[in-house]
Design brief:
It is a single chain. The chain is mainly alpha-helical and 124 residues long. It folds into two domains: 40 residues; 84 residues, Arc Repressor Mutant, subunit A, CATH 1.10.10. The chain is 63% helix and 8% strand. The chain contains six helices and three strands, in the order H-H-H-E-H-H-E-E-H. Strand 2 and strand 3 form a beta hairpin. The protein is elongated, with a radius of gyration of 19 Å. It starts with a helix and ends with a helix.
């Protein structure tokens, strides 16, 4: 679509314009939060915040495996590092520390959050 076509569509359909405005507003708020986190939070807090953001709001009600009742993040350390704005090595160190403290369990390409409330506290 050309710019003029989009402009005409937005003027003729206020619901579409309102929806786009809401989406852009959420994206701007998310970016502002990420920038603020980068400036004011430690790397460990950013990693914890990233994990909290990525876990589902509600764990499965009927776990099929012993750990399945806990929320899981299926990302590599490198992917978590990219989201948290740090290096893979640093994420690995932070995740090991959190695992040693019993907040999560690490698996290949999977991070199982054992203590979501404590992890939220870590996120600041």
């Amino acid at each position: 679509m050309s710019r003029d076509d989009v402009h005409r569509l937005l003027l003729s359909e206020p619901r579409i314009a309102a929806r786009i405005t809401a989406i852009l507003g959420r994206r701007l708020a998310d970016l502002e939060q990420r920038l603020s986190d980068t400036v004011f939070k430690s790397v460990a807090q950013r990693v914890a915040c990233t994990l909290i953001t990525l876990i589902p709001a509600k764990p499965p009600s009927r776990p099929l495996r012993p750990m399945a009742g806990h929320p899981q993040v299926t990302l590599t350390h490198e992917q978590v590092a990219a989201l948290a704005g740090t290096s893979r090595e640093t994420v690995t160190k932070v995740l090991r520390d959190l695992a040693d403290r019993g907040l999560l369990r690490l698996g290949r390409g999977r991070i199982t959050v054992l203590e979501p409330d404590r992890l939220r506290d870590e996120a600041g």
